[in-house]
User: Which sequence fits this backbone?
């Protein structure tokens, strides 16, 4: 299965919600803090064309923002 | 199936209402887009009794734990309409419809939009309503903060650690607390436009420019910015309620001191209402009142199965 990556910033409530949601669903994921890692920030902006967190990526697909319904579609 | 009570929104007022309703034994459903609402965006809270200092998310996690303990039913989704049919309320979400004998609307407020041309087009592409979330993505870039109140000035202070230049734009001067304004005025690379509105946001793939207009002489000019953070206040979340529910001139649901709206069985609590003080502790108290009043309404309602 392709790895799930969550792009976050430390003080972003929706990033926190997203991680809690994934943990509750038992989905393992990697996290990239774009405040700390400018390479990851660039990668995220190029992927989505947007400057907004959280971004949840799986393979070539991604969701911007905490949106449980779209996440469920992407992750299953 | 018919619920005794549906609570729309799960910030401090909605979650408190849920706890009181569950303890009264009401068959309750909470429908909300999230748990915690606006408080999730608040960092240090120093005026919620019982906690000398607590982070907004941490406080809401405590509320959530108390709600979960009572096994209240929750649906994380968006309410699209509420209608009254006979004695019952029909609450529609984007997924399905629910019936309830009473309803509490505690849906809070959301950031107000500018209504400038380009604002929607560039949402998340430079236009942001959360400096603390998205600020780090604007490292070494020039940005604008729109607004002159506490939230706007706090956002400017937060952003100052990342960005190359901040233009603070407000058409109404600085209304933020003095202590914040003093800190703002110490920032380097700050430009202030204190009698200006943003009339247009321009760019190709993302924000590149903002067109400002001076409110005194209507002169327009452009500034180069790659981020625009909008902090111009809040609007009540009540678009799912029709004109049959009375609101005040700023769109807040009118309630009396018993949390009653003009519709019997429909209660409202917290920041979405006309209650003057928008504070977590006030919202929580209003949620408690609304639940108790809804329970009393159900006791008096002859249709209520709650009586047996």
Assistant:
């Amino acid at each position: 299965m392709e790895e799930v990556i969550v792009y976050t910033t430390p003080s972003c409530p929706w990033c926190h919600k997203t991680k809690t949601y994934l943990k509750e669903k038992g989905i393992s994921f990697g996290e990239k803090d774009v405040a700390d890692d400018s390479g990851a920030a660039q990668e995220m902006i190029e992927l989505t064309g947007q400057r907004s967190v959280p971004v949840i990526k799986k393979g070539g697909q991604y969701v911007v923002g905490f949106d449980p319904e779209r996440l469920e579609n992407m992750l299953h | 199936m018919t619920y005794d009570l549906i609570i729309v929104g799960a910030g401090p007022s909605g979650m408190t209402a849920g706890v009181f309703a569950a303890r009264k034994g009401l068959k309750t459903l909470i429908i909300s887009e999230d748990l915690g609402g606006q408080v999730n965006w608040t960092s240090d809270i120093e005026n919620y009794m019982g906690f000398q200092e607590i982070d907004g998310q941490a406080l809401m996690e405590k509320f959530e734990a108390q709600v979960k303990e009572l096994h209240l039913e929750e649906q994380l989704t968006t309410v699209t309409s509420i209608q009254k049919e006979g004695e019952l309320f029909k609450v529609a979400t984007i997924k399905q419809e629910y019936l309830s004998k009473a309803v509490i609307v505690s849906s809070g407020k959301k950031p107000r939009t500018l209504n400038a041309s380009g604002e929607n087009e560039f949402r998340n592409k430079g236009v942001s309503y959360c400096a603390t979330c998205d600020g780090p993505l604007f490292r070494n870039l020039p940005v604008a903060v729109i607004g002159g109140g506490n939230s706007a000035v706090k956002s400017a202070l937060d952003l100052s650690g990342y960005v190359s230049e901040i233009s603070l734009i407000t058409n109404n001067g600085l209304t933020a607390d003095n202590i914040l304004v003093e800190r703002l005025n110490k920032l380097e690379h700050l430009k202030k436009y204190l009698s200006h509105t943003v009339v247009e946001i321009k760019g190709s793939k993302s924000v590149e420019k903002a067109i400002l207009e001076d409110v005194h002489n209507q002169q327009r000019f452009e500034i180069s910015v790659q981020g625009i953070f909008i902090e111009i206040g809040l609007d009540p979340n009540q678009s799912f309620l029709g004109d049959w529910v009375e609101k005040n001139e700023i769109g807040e649901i009118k309630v009396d001191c018993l949390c009653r709206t003009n519709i019997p069985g429909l209660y409202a609590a917290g920041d979405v209402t006309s209650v003057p003080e928008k504070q977590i502790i006030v919202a929580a108290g209003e949620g408690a009142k609304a639940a108790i009043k809804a329970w009393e309404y159900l006791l008096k309602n002859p249709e209520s199965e709650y009586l047996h």
